[in-house]
UniProtKB/TrEMBL annotation:
PANTHER family: 4-HYDROXYTHREONINE-4-PHOSPHATE DEHYDROGENASE (PTHR30004), D-THREONATE 4-PHOSPHATE DEHYDROGENASE (PTHR30004:SF6). Pfam families: PdxA. It comes from Kineosporia babensis. InterPro entries: PdxA_fam (IPR005255). This is 4-hydroxythreonine-4-phosphate dehydrogenase PdxA. The lineage of its organism: Bacteria, Bacillati, Actinomycetota, Actinomycetes, Kineosporiales. The keyword Metal-binding applies.
Length: 354
């Protein structure tokens, strides 16, 4: 599936948030920005985080800690492939021990995201790429957000958004996100279904594929099996899909997830809607691993994340792989130039009456 084109030729500026400094974020960030000079041909990466923690990460990765350079504004970035340019956000976190849950590290990961959002609101960056944070550490630091996605939506004051996993041309939208399974069932509502299908429709239109089929997973086993296993598929999802079709969205389903997702992996579907977190995440990660990224649809700037956690068990050992972060930077650089089209289309789609 094609990405929005870059009509200006300008390399997009990406705010790379450092994540939880007690995890592998500093190490994989250092590897990504010092060991992959080809990224500088497609974007200008600027780290939002902590210089001392980043220098520690460079040491763990066997790289030069002196390559870390503090700047005060993204417009100061030189994009030298031999340097990592970082916006210092708050006090130094270089003393934080790796591999342990730490409230100060959790507070830092929160601050990095908030600062990146500020830069986005002020038009100083074109996209956000996030290294992993630890939710328990963030909560211990006093910030009770379910995860990156909800925090980003709050900072940009958007109500209609979706967590989307992507590998190649395959996109897994999620009807509900970071919540319990019981809450996910409760939040599978007509309004949320309409909003999510509008987002998916807006996304494929902005990418130049307005007729792209969108497969919707059933919430219940066998998509309810004619109400034998629940009523939500017949009473909520099926009517929402019909309403989406009336709005010109090529939606299909609900289709049993154990049939739809394997068919998508084989290439039959490029756009899939999962009803809850693990319905999408578990099979996606099993198949794609480090080849996948997490995109947030509905924000005014593109946000792409690694599709893995903080990996406290291997932090500081010099063995963390940066492949997913490299891929996240590449995907953000490809999507950022045309992202306003995606965002405006999402706004227009979400405002369409059900």
């Amino acid at each position: 599936m094609p990405s929005p084109s870059n009509s200006t030729g300008r390399r997009p500026v990406l705010a790379v948030t450092l994540g939880d400094v007690a995890g592998i974020g500093p190490e994989i960030t250092a590897r990504t920005l010092l060991s992959h000079p080809e990224l500088r041909e497609i974007c200008v990466p600027v780290v939002v985080g902590d210089a001392d923690a980043l220098r520690n990460g460079a040491r763990y990765a066997g790289l030069d800690p002196e390559a870390v350079r503090v700047i005060s504004d993204p417009r100061e970035a030189t994009n030298d492939p031999n340097t990592i340019e970082v916006l210092q956000t708050g006090p130094s976190l270089g003393h934080i021990p790796v591999g342990e849950l730490n409230a100060a590290a959790g507070d830092g990961s929160y601050r990095f995201v908030v600062e990146a959002c500020r830069l986005g609101r002020e038009g100083l960056i074109d996209g956000i790429v996030t290294a992993p944070l630890n939710k328990a550490a963030m909560h211990a630091g006093g910030h009770n957000w379910p995860g990156h996605t909800e925090l980003l939506a709050h900072e940009f004051d958007v109500r209609n958004f979706s967590l989307v996993l992507s590998a190649g041309d395959l996109y897994f939208f999620h009807l509900t996100g970071h919540m319990s399974l019981a809450d996910a069932v409760e939040n599978t509502t007509p309004q949320r279904s309409d909003d999510l299908l509008s987002l998916a429709g807006a996304f494929v239109r902005a990418l130049g594929k307005p007729d792209e089929p969108i497969g919707v997973c059933g919430l219940n086993p066998h998509a309810g099996e004619n109400r034998i296993f629940g009523n939500q598929d017949a009473d909520v999802l099926a009517p929402a899909i019909e309403r989406a079709k009336e709005r010109g969205i090529n939606a299909h389903g609900p289709i049993p997830a154990d049939a739809l997702i394997p068919a998508a992996v084989r290439g039959k579907w490029n756009i899939v809607v999962a009803c809850y977190h693990d319905q999408g995440h578990a099979p996606f990660k099993a198949v794609y691993g480090d080849d996948g990224v997490n995109i947030t649809i509905g924000l005014p700037v593109v946000r792409v994340s690694v599709d893995h956690g903080t990996a406290f068990d291997i932090a500081g050992q010099g063995i963390a792989r940066e492949a997913s972060l490299v891929l996240a930077c590449e995907r953000a650089a490809a999507l950022a130039p045309g992202w306003d089209d995606v965002y405006q289309a999402a706004i227009a789609g979400a405002s369409t009456p059900a």
